[in-house]
TrEMBL record:
Keywords: Kinase, Membrane, Phosphoprotein, Transferase, Transmembrane, Transmembrane helix, Two-component regulatory system
InterPro entries linked to this entry: 2CSK_N (IPR013727), HAMP_dom (IPR003660), HATPase_C_sf (IPR036890), HATPase_dom (IPR003594), His_kinase_dom (IPR005467), HisK_dim/P_dom (IPR003661), HisK_dim/P_sf (IPR036097), SBP (IPR006059)
Coiled coil: none
Main location, first listed in the record: membrane
Domain Histidine kinase: 251-466
Pfam families hit by this protein: 2CSK_N (PF08521), HATPase_c (PF02518), HisKA (PF00512), SBP_bac_8 (PF13416)
Membrane-crossing segments per the record: 18-38, 168-191
Reactions listed under catalytic activity: ATP + protein L-histidine = ADP + protein N-phospho-L-histidine
Domain HAMP: 192-243
EC identifiers of the protein: 2.7.13.3
Protein name: histidine kinase
Subcellular localization(s) per the UniProt record: Membrane
Length: 810
């Protein structure tokens, strides 16, 4: 038995069908269980993360107090740290009082109408720009009016709970799937044992020769007795089919033998003739018999060829009109067609083409037989009309003649093999049978009827090949490809530092230009927050990590699919939307002409004491950020209050020393280089260390403390409204790629974030000997704490008051 037969037998195995039925039952059961498991997983995930929301709400409610202006709240860092346990979720919150309105947070968060004041947490789902899960909880405080309700409402997106839900569901389904597979294994063994009698029947059939078509004998089990009878019935049909085939071969042999015998007889009579006229008459009859024999042989060969090609031909797109014209040009060279009027009409083709999918050799043979049939039966004054017409679905090839035609009652049997309707003009009886085989092999139809010329009208109806022209679309795409496109980057980073990166990316992006616009960190934040459509950007870059997190937390960022190989460490990415690409520690810069390295303090406690002890020398010569204008300065200052209890003391010491405030690192570097400052704090270390000093500026020194040194990362993200999001994603990927990080290291004053093993590059260059206390600032909801309106206002008021400046207003 052939490989194909064996393969087909296995693909329709009864065992597999039984197993598939059992598997379907298992699948149905699994589906029912999966619904229950899904509901359980969702409830379990909600319970887990609802505890985070409840803990954060309690933490905030504990910091609610009452003063002369009414209720207020000091948003605790612990609340955001709790929410940050769901690291990839955005956060929304508000604190409000029915009598005093909104205290802080995002106004007008959705609240179900049925909610009543309660000290118990209430959880519910709501839709903002994406799905959120909220907790709503209240607390009563004592005010001048009596007892007042204050409510906190905190929400998180659903990413973490969906991930936990999917994990619980997946693990449960894996266990159920494993049990189901074991069960199906036992079912398979039972099926094999039960169907052993079928294998015996198969072995019996496999052992037979091709000539053995005797019925199978035996006593099969009751369950397969019908199959047993069906096999024997099929064997009987094979016997009948073989008998028909043998009969057809015998008919063909008989037709050929008869024709050849007649030819031989005429030649023998011609050889025996004594008179020239009689010999000539016999030779003429022999010639006609030879023509009939040749025609019969050609028809038999054509019939076999057409049947073979209809089973194995590869149909290809072609123009039927051109094929018909070429065939007619060949036929008209034959002598027997010179006395026949043949015309061709293709006016029914509106586009001048007749597209079909076909086999040229088979179609040419069918057309030859239709024309030959028309010539044979049409008589001396015959006219043959060949037509091609088409519509949206089909193409029709029609051959009409002026002969006697075929009676309607004989049309059906006219296409049978060895059938001639007119005995006077009888041929091989295969012409129309060949045409029918060609039509069937092309998925076409052969239609016979009466023609307008009075004879037979034979039409082959082909399916039309539909071709869609794309020229206009291709031209449009090419025109778009030629025109230059623009990538817009808005960044709070010195253009000189970013220029090598921009130039390298532009060089590898033909047809693109990059527009780079510089901002201060706070100005950039306000522009993006206010969503000015005239200044829409593709990429946002800033060193103010907290402001970047706040913008992404608003739902403004697009999720990027970056390769795992270039992803930054966990602390330097958030939600697959915000990515850090540099490693930049906060440093102390000093004037080497004023201080020696070994005289400088080694901790934040010592720093405050150092400035106080040298107050007279440092008065007016210590610099720092103006927290009202500098986003990175505010970030470093707030992180210092979290990491060190000395932060407030240091601020007071700086105020006593008349410290100066600056907007940015470059101004402090220039002031130290010019001798206007002896020291500047929390300067972005990368600028100080990588700076190529101009003549006279070699006096700048960089110093790190031993207790901790904050490390920030410049971050980049792509807005949802970016005009060119794909190219923007490519640029962010370029910043994190090996090439981009190498350019940062070698050609910019910045420090790259990644090496091939995700280790900070240049770390040994910035670490004093034995000091490994660099503390990266983690991206995430924790950075939102000091961006709370009340907390920020209070922090800046305290800073302005301590620094002796004018009061800070909202």
């Amino acid at each position: 038995m052939s490989a194909t037969t064996t393969e087909d037998r296995h693909s329709h195995s009864l065992k597999r069908r039984l197993l598939a039925s059992m598997a379907a039952a298992f699948v149905l059961l699994l589906l029912l269980i999966s619904v229950l498991l899904w509901n359980y997983s969702r409830a379990a995930a909600n319970r887990t993360y609802d505890l985070l929301l409840a803990g954060a709400a309690l933490s905030v409610l504990e910091r609610v107090s009452y003063n002369s202006a009414g209720p207020t709240v000091d948003l605790p860092q612990s609340a955001m740290d709790i929410l940050a346990l769901a690291a990839d979720d955005r956060v929304a919150y508000r604190v409000f009082s029915p009598n005093y309105g909104e205290l802080t947070g995002t106004p007008d968060l959705p609240v179900p109408e049925s909610l009543q004041p309660s000290i118990d947490p209430v959880f519910y789902d709501a839709k903002l720009d994406e799905g959120f899960r909220f907790v709503y909880q209240g607390r009563q405080i004592t005010s001048s009016r009596g007892r007042e309700w204050v409510f906190v409402q905190i929400g998180q997106t659903l990413n973490a709970r969906k991930a936990q839900r999917d994990t619980l569901f997946l693990y449960g389904m894996i266990g159920l799937g494993a049990v189901s597979l074991i069960g199906l294994g036992f079912v398979w063994l039972a099926i094999r044992t039960s169907l052993a009698p079928l294998r015996a029947i198969a072995d019996t059939l496999m052992a037979r020769t091709s000539r053995d078509l005797s019925p199978i004998e035996g006593d099969p089990p009751l369950e397969i007795s019908d199959l047993f009878r069906a096999i024997n019935s099929f064997i009987a049909q094979l016997v009948r089919s073989r008998n028909l085939t043998e009969s057809f071969i015998a008919d063909v042999a008989h037709q050929t033998r008869t024709s050849l015998s007649a030819l031989q007889g005429q030649l023998s009579l011609a050889a025996d003739a004594n008179e020239f006229d009689r010999m000539r008459d016999r030779l003429g009859k022999a010639e006609k018999q030879a023509e009939r024999t040749v025609h019969l042989t050609n028809q038999l060969l054509a019939n076999a060829m057409v049947i073979h090609r209809s089973e194995d031909a590869q149909l290809e797109p072609m123009d039927l009109r051109m094929l018909v014209r070429d065939t007619l040009a060949e036929l008209l060279r034959e002598r027997r067609l010179r006395q026949v009027s043949i015309s061709f009409d293709d006016s029914g083709l509106p586009e001048g083409k007749a597209p079909i999918r076909g086999d040229a050799i088979s179609i040419r043979e069918a057309l030859r037989n239709l024309i030959d049939n028309a010539v044979r039966h049409g008589g001396q004054e015959n006219t043959i009309l060949i037509e091609i017409d088409a519509d949206a679905q089909v193409v029709r090839l029609t051959v009409s003649d002026a002969g006697p035609g075929i009676a309607r009652a004989d049309l059906v049997r006219a296409t049978e093999r060895f059938t001639s309707i007119n005995s006077k003009t009888a041929g091989s009886g295969l012409g129309l049978a060949i045409v029918r085989s060609v039509a069937e092999g092309h998925g076409a139809r052969l239609q016979l009827g009466s023609s307008v010329l009075g004879g037979l009208r034979a039409t082959i109806v082909f399916p039309r090949l539909l071709v869609v022209a794309l020229a206009c679309l291709l031209l449009t795409m090419q025109a778009n490809a030629v025109s230059a496109r623009e990538l817009v980057i808005h960044a709070a980073t010195d253009p000189g530092a970013m220029r090598p990166l921009v130039d390298a990316f532009e060089a590898q992006s033909p047809g693109w230009t990059i527009t780079y616009r510089e901002y201060q960190t706070v100005d950039l934040y306000r522009e993006v927050r206010d969503a000015d459509p005239e200044t829409r950007a593709d990429v946002i870059i800033s060193s103010a990590m907290d402001l970047q997190v706040e913008l992404v937390n608003r739902g403004l960022a697009r999720t990027l699919r970056l390769p795992n190989a270039i992803l930054p460490p966990d602390w330097a990415r958030w939600r697959s939307q915000l990515f850090g690409f540099t490693w930049e520690p906060a440093a102390i810069i000093y004037d080497k002409r004023e201080f020696d390295e070994e005289d400088l303090p080694t901790s934040h406690r010592d720093l405050a004491s150092f400035i106080r002890e040298n107050e007279s020398k440092l008065r007016g010569e210590v610099g720092g950020y103006d927290l009202r204008r500098s986003g990175i300065g505010y970030l470093f200052a707030t992180q210092d209050t979290i990491q060190s209890v000395q932060a407030q003391r240091l601020t007071e010491v700086l105020a006593r020393a008349n410290a100066q405030s600056f907007c940015c690192t470059s101004e402090m570097l220039d002031a130290v280089a010019a001798g206007k400052l002896s020291m500047a704090l929390n300067v972005i270390g990368s600028y100080a260390m990588k700076r190529d000093p101009a003549p006279g500026q070699e006096n700048i020194g960089v110093h790190f403390l031993d207790d901790y040194n904050l490390v920030m990362s410049r971050t980049a993200w792509v807005p949802k409204t970016a005009p060119e999001p794909e190219m923007a994603e490519r640029f962010v990927a370029f910043l994190l790629s090996a090439e981009g990080q190498s350019i940062i290291n070698l050609k910019t004053p910045l420090i790259p974030l990644l090496l091939s093993r995700e280790q900070p590059l240049g770390l040994e260059d910035v670490r004093p000997a034995g000091n490994a206390s660099f503390l990266p600032i983690r991206l995430g909801p924790g950075l939102l704490t000091f961006l709370d309106r009340i907390k920020r206002d209070e922090f800046l008021r305290s800073w302005v008051s301590s620094m002796g400046g004018q009061d800070y207003g909202p």
